Amino acid sequence: MNCEVYKGSRKEGAYLFVADSKSLENLPAALTEQLGDLEFVISFDLATRTSLASADPAEVMASIKTGGFYLQMPPGTDLETC
After folding, report:
1. 9, 11, 49, 70 - which has most CB atoms within 10 Å?
2. Residue 78 pLDDT
């Protein structure tokens, strides 16, 4: 599964994982408002990863398949504090 990662401009350390850039069109408005402008970071094949820096690849893949995205926040924060 291809995965693209974007970082939000309003919260340091917030990263959004999606299948492709077209997926950004379907994000909830509240999410995009909280994250601000999204900047492309990297694209990679998630299926070949056995680990990621702050998340379980299987959890990220499942979240993208079921909800369209995976949001990685810095430790100790949540979306409301963006």
Report:
1. 70
2. 62
Over 60: is that where the pLDDT of 81 sits?
no
Which residue segment(s) compose the domain that 70 sits in?
2-18+28-75
| CATH number of the domain bearing residue 44 | 3.10.510.20
pLDDT at 79 over 60: no
Q: What is the DSSP letter of 11?
A: S
Percentage of the residues of the chain whose pLDDT score is greater than 70: 91
Interatomic CA distance for residues 47 and 27, integer angstroms: 22
For residue 3, give the 3-state DSSP assignment. Answer: strand
> Does some domain include residue 32?
yes
The C-alpha atoms of residue 52 and residue 2 are separated, in whole angstroms, by 14
Structure tokens given for 68: 């369209």
| Cα dihedral across residues 26, 18, 54, 32: positive or negative | negative
